[in-house]
Amino acid sequence: MKIAIAQLNPTIGDIFGNSNLILEAAKRSAVEGANLLLTPELSLIGYPPRDLLLDPSFIAAAAAQLHQLARALPPELAVIVGTVVPNADAVKLGGKSLFNSAVLLQNGAVKQVFHKRLLPTYDVFDEDRYFEPGENSNYFTIADRKIGVTICEDLWNNEEFWGKRSYAGDPISDLAKFGVDLVVNLSASPYSVGKREVRSAMLQHSAIRFGIPIVYANQVGGNDDIIFDGSSFALNRKGDLIQVLASFETDFAVLEYDANKQDLIGSGNGQDARSTSDLGWECEAQKPRLISSGGNGHLARSITETDLSFEPPLGDAEIWAALVFGVRDYVRKCGFSKVVLGLSGGIDSALVAAIASWAIGPENVLGVLMPSPYSSDHSVNDALELARNLGMAIELLPIGDLMKTYDRTLADLFLNTTFGIAEENIQSRIRGNLLMAISNKFGHLLLSTGNKSEMSVGYCTLYGDMNGGLAVISDVPKTRVYSLCRWLNSDSGMGKEIVPVNIISKAPSAELKPGQIDQDSLPAYDVLDDILQRLIEHHECVQEIVAAGHDAAVVKLVVKLVTQSEFKRRQAAPGLKISDRAFGTGWRMPIAKASF
């Protein structure tokens, strides 16, 4: 028996387009002699569909397209499609009106339906809002082999692996009692740093524990703030990783189930199989490359190797790949072709410019330099050098005269007051206004350039540098911004200077007043980022953070700033999620709240 995995990149709501992706994968599967094709969770409608699920016409369209797809598929091929199925008992017995389901299609019809049992309601997930949980796990039979079906979270409840008791049930344990020969999982598991290794270790534990091979088919693609990395894989009954599909790109592979060995064996196509101990999971998508607007992935210029000794921290390559992929998909799925951003000569805008250039091609990226009387000459020169290195277009729009106009307009109202934050922020808002004008005039997507450290403590200007349609690095701490830029310049990155060394080496500054640097207002970034990680991602309290070695006054200041800045984050552009705790759909903090 041959099993195909289609690692698809569906567009949410594009039911017809997603159906065609499945159909094309099915045709290829049939040509390669596969008996079964797996697609990701909710592959027909895209994940997460959110409140589209409250629209009856959307549900009806999905149902109609499912049956049309069944009739169009190669009849000899069994295909498992992820979609929503109405709950017929919802009115009579109560409960949610829909199931998150895997539907087995064969010979032009729906043969069997499997409902997701475990519905995640944490972080970016809100499935209990829409779905009724399935009551039982089940399997189907092909070539006299029992194949158990699970959907995403159904395989994330291994009590032994997590070391804690679950009261929600363990679907794979139930399937093992049925004596299934194989377990398949349709997934839409979002990316975060280190997530791929957790998945493989968890499912390896299950495969070994139950002696059952597992095939894991994950969605790939960027959908709003969430990035899905794909990285689908298959494990034999000993837990050996026998097939790995690419990360951050669509992929396809065919596996073979050997009836004599009663186990999966690799077929040699797709990505080469590798050990689960290989934490790098290197793939072509992680290699930096400039692409043309056609997205063909070819190098846009020759690369000159340089002798750099920088050793990148674990994760820089995959974070880079995730951000490039996230920008590319966001631009494409939202109907844009070009982007614009402000170039300050600082490291944040430099990284965003580089990411955008790799994502959609430098010819589709416009950088706007908007120096004020407080901008240093080296900032302008650094921004110009960066633009030359990337090959992107630039515009120079000095804002000194506009600042004077604001000063005259506000002179009477601001009389007898001291120059301060209000005047500083006007500069940022002038720049934000100019960038939005360019975005509106030419239809470019405006990328904002603030990092996670700044977003956490409110070191950003509402309606100024926060303006934009996508906040590219809002989940990237400042220390990681530096690391990514050094990695990009290193041999393991591009092997040449992309981000000018002066941008990396100089003290960061908003340059909104003479001699200003970030550390006038904030702790050193290595200190700040450690406090923020403990507070935001590890949920540590003030006492725990202080016990870890941080100054109590600094910790209390940071906590206060994070709390006070919630209103800004609520109005920010969506940002690409790369951590376990990002500001976005998974962050649900009240604005009006008491300190504790």
What does this structure look like?
Helix content is 34%, strand content 17%. With 596 residues, it is α/β, with parallel strands linked by helices. Helix 1 runs parallel beside helix 2, helix 8 runs parallel beside helix 9 and helix 8 packs across helix 13. The chain has 18 helices and 20 strands. The model is unreliable at 268-312 (pLDDT under 50). Strand 1, helix 1 and strand 2 form a beta-alpha-beta unit. The chain has helices spanning 15-31, 56-72, 90-93, 159-162, 171-177, 195-210, 316-333, 347-360, 377-390, 400-410, 421-442, 452-457, 478-489, 501-505, 525-537, 542-547, 552-564, 566-570, and strands at 2-7, 36-38, 78-86, 98-106, 109-115, 138-142, 145-151, 182-187, 214-218, 220-223, 226-229, 233-235, 241-244, 251-258, 263-265, 339-342, 365-369, 393-396, 445-448, 470-471.
Short description:
By secondary structure, the protein is of the alpha/beta class. 34% of the residues lie in helices and 17% in strands.
Gyration radius from CA atoms, angstroms: 26 Å
Number of helices: 18
Instruction: Quote the beta fraction.
Output: 15-25%
> Which range best describes the helical content: under 10%, 10-25%, 25-40%, 40-55%, 55-70% or over 70%?
25-40%
Terminal CA distance reads 60 Å
> How many β-strand stretches?
20
Overall pLDDT score:
89
User: Which spans of ≥5 residues are poorly predicted at pLDDT below 50?
Assistant: 268-312
Topology:
Layout: E1 2-7, H1 15-31, E2 36-38, H2 56-72, E3 78-86, H3 90-93, E4 98-106, E5 109-115, E6 138-142, E7 145-151, H4 159-162, H5 171-177, E8 182-187, H6 195-210, E9 214-218, E10 220-223, E11 226-229, E12 233-235, E13 241-244, E14 251-258, E15 263-265, H7 316-333, E16 339-342, H8 347-360, E17 365-369, H9 377-390, E18 393-396, H10 400-410, H11 421-442, E19 445-448, H12 452-457, E20 470-471, H13 478-489, H14 501-505, H15 525-537, H16 542-547, H17 552-564, H18 566-570
Parallel strand pairs: 1-2, 2-3, 7-8, 8-9, 16-17, 16-19, 17-18, 19-20
Antiparallel strand pairs: 1-14, 3-4, 4-5, 6-7, 9-12, 10-11, 12-13, 14-15
